Each structure stands twice: as C-alpha cells, then as structure tokens.
Amino acid sequence: MTTNNPVIRIGRIDFTNVWPLFYYFPFSAFGNELEVTQQVPTGLNKAMAQGEIDIGPISSFAYGENYEKYMLFPDMSVSSYSHVNSILFFHRKPIEELTSATIALPTTSATSVNLLKIILYKFYHLEPNYVYAAPELDTMMKTADAALLIGDHAIRASWEDNGYMVTDLGAEWTRLTGQWMSFAVCTIRKEVVEQQPEQIERIYEAFLESKRKSLADMTGMINDAQKLIGGTAEYWEHYFSNLSYEFGPKQWEGLQLYYQYATELGFLDREVKLHIWNHNSVVRVTE
C-alpha cells in the first residue's frame, strides 16, 4: 500500500522485552509507509527528541524530559508490578551499607538509572559515587562496589554464578511504594498525530494485534530468544508472562509517582503530565 503521506519512522528497542509489540507487527501491510530503526533505549530517546523517529517505545524518563512534544499510546508499555527480571542491581554488600560506594551505571538506560538513584536516595538515604560504564558486569565490578544492568545484559548476567547480591528494581520499587513501574512507554510525536491521524490509528491497532497474538502463543518468541540469547524455554515463558505490556490507570499512577520523585530530586526540571492518545481526540491530558 502506498500513500502520499510522509513516511512514519518507527523506533524499536534492541531488547527482548519489547518483542511482543513487534513480533507480529504487519510491516508488509504498510508497504513503504513505515521505516524501522533499532537501537538501545538511550539511542532511541535521543532520536525521538531530535525528531529523527516519530513513534517508538522509548524510556519513560525520556518521555518526562520532553513530554510537551509527545503523546502516549494507551495499552502499550513495558511495565511490572514487582519483579521485572531484566532491571537488576548487582552489589557486594547489602544496599543499606553502600553509603560511600562506587556504583557503575550502564550507558544504555535512562529510566532505570534514575529509578536506582531515586530508590537509593529517597528510601535508603544514600548518595554514592556514580560512574558510567559499558554494560558488562565483570568489567563494571572491577572498579565498582555495585553495578546496574538492564535488558538482555541483565538477563545474561543473572544466569551466571557471580556471587553478588542481586536486587530486582521492579520488585524493590513495588515493595517500597506499592505501585507499578513502567520502564518504557510507546510514544508518538504530537505533530505526527495531528498531521497523520489515520495512519497513527492503524499503527496503534497493528501494535495491539501484535501484542495480543504474541502473548496468546509465545512459542515463536521463546524459540527465537533461546537462539539469540540462550536460556531455557521455561525461563523465557516466565519472563514474557511476568512482564506487563498494558498501560492504563494503574500504570499511569505508578509512573506519575516516579516522575514526582524525579522532579523532587532535580532529575527532571518540571512536573510531567501524561498526554494519552485517544481514538476520538488529538490530545487528552491526564493530570
């Protein structure tokens, strides 16, 4: 199918956690209407901010940085209530003893890095020394007391018997706040919503259908994950089943608390509003 509309550029996170949104996405049905770019979260965050992509599951923190320019698809996110299994904090000592520790942070993440800082400052009253490093646990821990890994890097490290204590940040956030945590949100640039509303609606429906089919029968995703990363079929079935790809009022509430804390601590410079896309209106704002 061809149209006279500009190509819509879709960004895709280079991690298994977003596979259900894309696994059965009917790219061929859109012909030359779409372009797809695959990057780590920080790369997509930057590309979206610079107007180089139009739609994508970007870091929740990156939405907060530029929310005035964006809208959010409902019913689509990478969220968890308790364990997320791929946002993992590896540490030599109990968290409360990391007072003057050096903590290595990955260069691939925005949401999780700031979630860790929020948890350590707000709930443990810690201000450790943070350094950035490539996401490789052994290298990170050569010069640090603790390290954060996300996505497939975290999954691989969790399978190794490395002797570290491991804290799942999704579980820790829910334990401390009682809330959901959304790590990635499916974001659209507002001007594209205004200029190409019909395409946006079709793309939204295609994402939802991919999510529905992927989660109804996870066999293909599980097999592909084993080939690409390793692990057992049981691990991947638990992993995909345990993540939530919903984005509704419960997830919005948890994300607003995250933004509130990020603003209080100066990670964001203003209060964030959730602009939820809707079939019947260009903009709906959730206060």
TrEMBL record:
GO terms for molecular function: hydro-lyase activity. It catalyses: chorismate = 3-[(1-carboxyvinyl)-oxy]benzoate + H2O. Transmembrane segments: none annotated. GO terms for biological process: menaquinone biosynthetic process. InterPro entries: Menaquinone_biosynth, MqnA. Signal peptide: none annotated. Its EC number is 4.2.1.151. The keyword Lyase applies. Pathway: Quinol/quinone metabolism; menaquinone biosynthesis. Keywords: Lyase, Menaquinone biosynthesis. The keyword Kinase does not apply. Catalyzes the dehydration of chorismate into 3-[(1-carboxyvinyl)oxy]benzoate, a step in the biosynthesis of menaquinone (MK, vitamin K2). Belongs to the MqnA/MqnD family. MqnA subfamily. HAMAP family: MqnA. This is Chorismate dehydratase. It comes from Paenibacillus cremeus.
